[in-house]
Amino acid sequence: xxxxxxxxxxxxxxxxxxxxxxxxxxxxxxxxxxxxxxxxxxxxxxxxxxxxxxxxxxxxxxxxxxxxxxxxxxxxxxxxxxxxxxxxxxxxxxxxxxxxxxxxxxx
Length: 107
Known about the structure:
This protein is mostly beta strands. The protein has no helices and twelve strands. It has a seven-stranded mixed β-sheet with strand order 1-3-5-10-11-7-8, with no helix packed on it. The chain has a five-stranded mixed β-sheet with strand order 2-4-6-9-12, with no helix packed on it. The chain is globular, with a radius of gyration of 13 Å.
């Protein structure tokens, strides 16, 4: 079989927009941050990214795409990660549709 190599990227950014090149990676945010999922993210069905919330607060927002999880869905929603050091995943479900998995609260 083919070995799978995953990349871990650490960031001190306080604002970050997911890009198509982020799929299949691990992103670690060490400061309080807001991550945006937008049409520029362009994941296809099944593509995903794992996010480590190592800062004091992490929010994930949708901008023009459907983001669903924790009983909430919409194109302009905000998800707050439950606690520092949590890990959450974002999975492409189809064209401009994403699912957030993990300890989050949606609003």
